[in-house]
Amino acid sequence: MNILVTGGLGYIGSHVVVCLVENGYDVIILDNLSNSDISVLSKLEKITNRKLNFKEIDLGIEDHVKDFFKKNTNIEGIIHFAALKSVGESVRKPNKYFQNNLNATINILKYMPEKVPFVFSSSCTVYGSAMKQPINESTPHGIAESPYGKTKQLCEKLINKKFFESKNFKGISLRYFNPIGAHQSGLIGENPKNIPENLMPYLTQVVGGRRKVLTIFGDDYDTKDGTCIRDYIHIMDLAEAHIKAIDYLINIKVTKFLEFLNIGTGIGVSVLELVKTFEKSTGLKVNYSIGKRRPGDIEKAYAQTNKAKQILGWKPKYTLTNALKSAWNWEKKSLI
Ligand code: NAD
Ligand code: UD1
């Protein structure tokens, strides 16, 4: 079956492409390379031992998306990753984020064929600063912490609208917590074009010598050691959740379906715990210092994960140590 993967050369998309191929799917990758490099394609071909179908398209341009679906009538599933994801940049350039993330999603939803299963990359950011932990899916959208977060909320609303207006819409919005780590080959991983804003790539780049020091944003939160708590999920577990979601939508007998599912481990880990676990599992020192709180950061966010387990039969297999070792393996290989 042919699965369209938008943003398929990015961090999460590339890992999902590997899993799709391993599970017998054919893939068509669309990406405009705004936050990825074309070299990822050959790495994916090396891992999967397969020539892959890639088209460089900006999904924000309506005519390009229309034309793509006109010429490609064989799409049997869509996983929509393509979006800009830097929280800090979204605060500085909100219009860029609204335009890119919303237009790409509107265009896909508008021109995708009826009945084709649709999986959307959402984020725990839709919950805003949720008071109750672990966060379950009935927690309503909170106040968006950033324009990026707002785009995820609005895209979920667009999907909801499509569901109510169309006769045949089957979709799942996966709300990721904090994906980290890399494929075991060390050939693909998280490699943002600019200075990383996320903890994991920043930490590994410090250890690898590309950056000097990791600043831990605040140690005066109301948590076990004062640093923020997150739910870090191994990228390969996250990738598997997409396979389960697309399989589920393809096989489900009903014509209409929409679910919003948390994808996390359910375990809250503090920033300091993550740093210490990294040091223990790799035997390497992390040069860090404690800095000020980062504006917009939330104190705690970890998932309640029963719903994904019940509906998809998915649960994470990897530990934090596995994820941290794989992240370091990727950084090490990219230094060679
Ligand atoms: P990424 O930046 O590595 O990948 C996104 C890909 O989409 C990039 O290759 C980029 O070039 C492409 N893209 C962006 N806009 C496009 C457009 N208009 N047309 C075509 N391609 C476009 O990011 P990622 O970490 O792989 O994230 C994938 C998705 O998951 C995003 O929607 C992101 O918001 C969401 N998400 C990520 C995280 C995370 O921590 N990484 C957490 C929650 C949700
Ligand atoms: C952020 C976004 C989330 C988005 C995700 C992917 C918020 C509130 N959440 O998640 O919506 O989907 O990025 O882009 O903005 N940290 C440091 N030092 C660093 C970097 C991070 O101490 O140099 C800390 C942060 O304060 C946080 C934790 O590490 O406590 C994780 O941060 P990060 O990786 O940026 O992810 P989130 O902020 O959870």
**Radius of gyration, whole Å:** 19 Å
C-alpha end-to-end distance? 37 Å
Q: Total domains, how many?
A: 1
Mean pLDDT, rounded to whole units? 96
Hey, roughly how much beta strand do the residues contain? 15-25%
Structure summary, number of beta strands = 13
- Give the class from helix and strand content and strand pairing: alpha/beta
Folded structure, characterized:
This protein has 336 residues and is of the alpha/beta class. It has one domain (2-335): NAD(P)-binding Rossmann-like Domain (Rossmann fold), CATH 3.40.50. 40% of the residues lie in helices and 17% in strands. The protein contains eleven helices and 13 strands. The chain has helices at residues 11-22, 39-48, 62-71, 87-92, 94-111, 147-165, 199-207, 235-251, 271-282, 306-312, 320-335, and strands at residues 2-6, 26-31, 53-56, 77-80, 118-123, 170-176, 178-180, 214-217, 229-230, 232-234, 257-263, 269-270, 288-291. The strands form four sheets. A seven-stranded parallel β-sheet has the order 3-2-1-4-5-6-11, with helices on both faces. A two-stranded parallel sheet has the order 7-10. The chain has a two-stranded parallel sheet with strand order 8-13. The longest helix is centred in the middle third of the chain and has 19 residues, at 147-165. The radius of gyration is 19 Å and the shape is globular. The mean pLDDT is 96. The protein binds nicotinamide-adenine-dinucleotide and uridine-diphosphate-N-acetylglucosamine. Uridine-diphosphate-N-acetylglucosamine binds at residues 85, 87, 123, 125, 145-146, 149, 178, 197-199, 202, 214-217, 228, 230, 271, 294, 296-298.
